[in-house]
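Fig. S4 source data, part A: sequence.
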Amino acid sequence: MVAAEAGVTRSTVSRALNGEPDVSAATIEHVRQVAARMGYVPNRAAKSLASARSMAIALVIPEPGQLALADPHLISIMAGVSRRIEQSDYLLNLMVSGGTGSAGADAALGSKLQRYLSSGVVDGVLIASQHTRDEWLLHLHDTLPVVFGGRPSAQTDPPNYFIDVDNRGAAAAAVQHLVSLGRRRIATITGPADMSAASDRLEGWRDALGSAGLPADLEIPGDFTAASGTGGVSRLLSSAPDVDAIFAANDVMGAAAVAALLDAGRRVPEDVAVVGFDDSSAALTARVPLTTVNQPSERMGELMADTLLRILAGENVPVSTVVESRLVRRASA
């Protein structure tokens, strides 16, 4: 018995292994050393029954699998979440699904996920992406604790917790950099219109051009995929051959835009400068290394998980946490 070996009561062992605040740090360390030496592993099922907790957390990415598992930003979010959860007593469940292209199918899938997540199988939920089509996610916090990665698409009462960067301000700074280089026909390839990050970055592009007295008339819709970066450049060169700069709302589109420009005979950055957003692996592997806005995606994932763990521990945490971003200059602009 760990209690006998450590010279404490069984209840002290339980509280020490759970890290409860009424046990001294020295006792916690002593009990954990004894438990490790004896090869003791707490019974998770018994602990869950006793505490009415599942000791599991869900990371929900409501995107098609091929997008979620290929997007560098989302992959970094996953890595950060996983690293922080590994430091706790909780297990992490990854749930990737959504964006079927059918409103009816998406609604049915959302209803199924909502029932599952609200059934007690997890103690809290982390949401790494959210579209307006997934309105049910906004109200999941009525049932259990929820933390969003990125500002939710609508306000609720009470509000949802979230971790984000200042997307609008960061996008404006990126476009101001293009203006400072003397660029005057500055286009944007946007993210999905039903995502707050994409709409905020679009507003930042408009802000910067308005402040510079330049027209905001080269707006090309995109969806954060390489295909929309390639297609966006094709549309731009056809409709606005005088374009001399592009702000892409993420690095995946930015890297694809660089490749499409080079393939069309345009030099980057001499003819067309390009700036992306994320500072992901896509920026580093672009055919011309991409100037981009750094948002610390792994750190944001860690903060999402840490915030949820603190909520589950009964701590008071801020509703919103805005992480600093910065412009990283490389060869493309």
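Fig. S4 source data, part B ends here. The first strand starts at residue 56 and ends at 61.
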